[in-house]
Model the fold of this input.
Amino acid sequence: MKEQIPGRGVGRPDKGLGRATAPVLAGLTLALVAAVGSPPVEAAVFRLTDPNQEVVGRAFYVKSRKEDTLLDIGRQNNMGYDDMRLANQKVDVWVPKAGADVLVPESFVLPDAPHQGIVLNLAEKRLYFYPSSGREVHTFAISIGRDGLNTPKGRFKVTAKVKDPTWTPTAQHHADRAKEGREPLPAVVPAGPDNPLGQYALRTSAPSILIHGTNKPWGLGMEVSRGCIRMYPEGVEKLFPMVSVNEPITIVDQSYKFGWRGNDLYLEVHRDPEEPAASLHEVVPGRLAQSPEVNLDWEAVRRAVEENTGLPQWVGGRQSAANRLYLDMIF
Done:
């Protein structure tokens, strides 16, 4: 039996690179691979060698083909619109040159949130799923609520799992369609290719907020929904069986993420380019800025904030015990 869902929500530097390279990325794989030709990636999965691990993955390049857009390459690699646009600021989104080197930013500072269940970071439009084993993390590109219909922050949980959901448009959906002069929606949209919820939906304890698929996957990685979280069809199909009812959900909005990879500190920036950047002292938390054990490169921090690539960039490291002793002796 198909359930009806009334929806508000369709709506470390690599040692070969060296620190002189700008930006210094958290593990940049320089190998060039074919852009398309295989099925889209369902999720990026990273093994966690340490429960406190903070940086995962390695960015890599692909060669674009004449018929590719950055959105095509993004979907092939579980990336959304903003992921690809920020990482490739000198590449035309719609007409990259044939044979162009396109960076796939598959490297992440994990959000500052419990490594448990579902974690969403609104600023980067990405969902992280931590299975109960604690040994890995799965990541998925998502779309979120647009301005005025924002996806809420906070702690929630999965309340139901629905395969082949139907969709009941709200009065606001009907009003919007009429205002736009578009064909009226039916009272209930059945499961199938015309259903904007896709084939899978997760109800949440956040009022009217679902995590669901979509029948229009090329809008992934944007602020376009009425508050719900949209996923690629192949992504939600992967996530759906892994999630349980009562699975915890943590939704944060972290534009500046700091994380350690060994003794190297990285900063990943996802700020709104239309808004002024925060001051560096607002960007760097006191636990890092004031720690005698952390050697911050403030120029690298400034560069990471300014460039806003959505990729982890090296911004400092741990003070060695020998250096701390030497400074103590001087002062």
